[in-house]
Amino acid sequence: MRKEDCFYLGKIVSKYSFKGEVLVKLDTDEPEIYENMESVFVSLGNNLVPFFIDRCRLHKSSLLRVDFEEVKDEVSADKIMGSELYLPLKMLPPLTGNKFYFHEVIGFTLMDETHGNIGTIKAINDSASQELFEAEKDGKELLIPISDDIISKVDREAKTIHVKTPEGLVDLYLA
Known about the structure:
Elements: E1 6-15, E2 22-26, E3 39-44, E4 47-59, E5 63-68, H1 74-80, E6 84-88, E7 109-112, E8 116-125, E9 132-137, E10 140-145, E11 151-155, E12 160-163, H2 169-174
Parallel strand pairs: 7-12
Antiparallel strand pairs: 1-2, 1-6, 2-5, 3-4, 3-6, 4-5, 7-8, 8-9, 9-10, 11-12
């Protein structure tokens, strides 16, 4: 399995017990939908390795307590500590309306209410406190905030996202 065919589920952040159980910090708004998984891919080196799960359950809010079949002691748990977990893209629940997964809107066109086509989404920047569309128009890069106040419509059929950008924002980039 390749990372491109998967989505990031979370990261192993700590050991839970001397029996090899670990806690995973999930990257999701709905952690409860991942409580009954049978397996995940664990990123080890440059490979995604399938790990089978004996039991997993929510621990506090966004942590998942996982008991892997292959990890039954602290030494084994130490070997996977800090590893990222992935699941195949086909396991993502479909989103509708103005909700979207970041990977699915790459290549979409941003249509601004005032300026029309303001570029094609090349990437999503989620490393800052405000998530941003990184779009490109005529060789220029635009950074547009991802916010319910700005996004007016996601049109999956036409591969466009309609936005109402704050006054002057687009002019900063395209002037």
